[in-house]
Structure formats: structure tokens, C-alpha cells
Amino acid sequence: MRSIFAAILIALIGAIGFVLYQYNTKVTAEAQYGVPFNLVTAKGDAITEAAFKGQPTALFFGFTNCPEICPTTLFELDSWFKELGTDSDKIKSYFITIDPERDTPEILGDYVASVTNRVEAISGNPDQVRAMASGFGVYYKRLELEGGDYTMDHTASVFLLDKNGAFRSTIAYGENSDTAVQKLRNLVKG
After folding, report:
1. 148-152, long-range: CB within 8 Å, 24+ apart, which pairs?
2. Distance CA 101, CA 72 (A)
3. Angle formed by the axes of helices 69-84 and 177-189, to 10°?
4. How far apart are CA 105 and CA 174, in angstroms?
5. Which of 30, 37, 130, 140 is at a distance of 20 to 30 A from 13, taking alpha carbons?
6. Is the pTM of this model over 0.85?
7. Model confidence over 72-124: pLDDT tens digits?
8. SS3 for 93?
9. What is the DSSP letter of 137?
């Protein structure tokens, strides 16, 4: 009798654990990634976290004075979107500065537009930009250089969000192009 009771109790605890795990997984997967923000596009339009809902989104955080990672990533994004063909129209993409003191909306917009018309530039008030980047878990740090100049160290991944604004995956800097395109295709499929 005691072993039957123990087996029932273990099964009940296992079932409750499984249900809680499934619920937590569903709630976590459907939650919008990041934090609320209020920034500005290169066109001077206000943009909030609501822009990351409605269709899949690719986000990249960088800066215009970046010597290698940022321009390379923009060129790669442009080529990945070209390879996707018409499916690329189903993905919104944004380049968010992590150096808003130098990257005004206009400067950032010109920088991005010189590489691609598929990526929208986002800048704004420095405190709000930093709060948004931190809220998205983006690493960034100002590194002083000789002569009073500086550069920025930062996360170099492209963040992929689903149509609900929930985090799905990343494309790492230097990741194989075929893999990156497949991740974007998977993002479009949902």
C-alpha cells in the first residue's frame, strides 16, 4: 500500500512539474524581448518597442566610427536580404547606435543608407539609447584612445525577434552566410 501511495505521489509531483515547465516555457517564449523605449529614426520619426511587433525583426547594435564589425555586418545583412529575395520584405531590420553622442539620427541614417536601404537607423537621447541597449542585454563600453578620441566595444550579434517581439536567436559576427540566411528563413516561417 505504501509503495502504491509513493508511486502516485511521485507521478503527481512529476505531472505538476511538467505542467509548470510547459507553462513557463510558453510564457517566456511569447514575452516581448527587451524594454520599452522611445527613440528616433533617421527620418526624425519617433520609434518605440511597438515597432518590433507585427513581423519578424533583425536588430544590430553598433556605431558609425566602428572600424570593421559594423560596416561588415551591414554589408552582410544587405547580402542576406538579397539572397532571401521577396521573403526579406517580411523582416524589419534596424541598426541601433551605441554611440549616440556622435551618431545623431542624420549621421547614422546616412551611414546605414550608404550600405543598404533595408535597414533603418535608430538613435536618440544618449540616456535613453543606453537604457534601451542595456535592457536588451547588449554589452557596450567606451574605450578611450590616445589623443582624446574613443572607440566602442560592443556586442556584435544580430538579434532575431519573432512577429510578437519575442527573442528567437542570434546571428553571430562572422557566422557562416548560409547559416545566417537559414536563420532568417526560419524567422520568416515563424
Report:
1. 151/65, 151/66, 151/67, 152/63, 152/65, 152/66, 152/98, 152/99
2. 22
3. 60
4. 27
5. 30
6. no
7. 999 999 999 999 999 999 999 999 999 999 999 999 999 999 999 999 999 99
8. strand
9. T
